[in-house]
């Protein structure tokens, strides 16, 4: 169910395309001057980058599917809000706080039985999406709740006075008005996921984290470690740039 884009291999495909040209051999020779780099390692680096981006996208999607409704309920069930319910709010807050308190590296190991039952294995990028989605969903929920708290109460009261239902208030007032903050929150979430995925490499999740540990740290090859670090920084900068651009377009002037 997680494999929406099974052929997501943009960088690996790009490297295979470039390998047809004469300058590729010169590039490989140049890279070979650094300890641990050869043509095979270049393709491993491309594959690991593809896996990392894939996991960021998929776990961000599933984490939002879980976290968005929880965040909306956390806000709407608060005292004085449109679905005021102390019991529901307390239960949701309690569960959310529990999962937010668990360090991600421990969460991965803790839910291995669930991941194995759900996916069939706990190793690989598909299996990693399960703990990644569960680990990031409480963060998304709290960020959504905080984003909705910034919506002026006057707008909600005005919608109520015109007879809007709770569902209409959520979709026509709360979410549109808080959209820039939500987008900014999701940007932070995706950046956080990039760090989670690097940690997930320690337990065989694949991606750049596993490459850095397996070949850079365990193989005593600093060049590989440094390259992975640079790639991760570039990914974070791209996510932040895209997020900032969307925030500017969705901000009301």
TrEMBL record:
CDD domains: TM_PBP2
Matches recorded under Pfam families: BPD_transp_1
Membrane topology label: Multi-pass membrane protein
Signal peptide start and end residues: none
Domain ABC transmembrane type-1: 49-243
Keywords: Amino-acid transport, Cell membrane, Membrane, Transmembrane, Transmembrane helix, Transport
Transmembrane segments: 53-75, 105-124, 181-203, 223-247
InterPro entries for the chain: AA_ABC_Transporter_Permease, MetI-like, MetI-like_sf
GO BP, sorted A to Z: D-methionine transmembrane transport
SUPFAM superfamilies in the record: MetI-like
Localisation per UniProt entry: Cell membrane
Alphabetical list of PANTHER family matching this protein: ABC TRANSPORTER PERMEASE (PTHR30450), D-METHIONINE TRANSPORT SYSTEM PERMEASE PROTEIN METI (PTHR30450:SF8)
Family: Belongs to the binding-protein-dependent transport system permease family. CysTW subfamily.
Protein name from the UniProt record: D-methionine transport system permease protein MetI
Annotated organism of origin: Gilliamella intestini
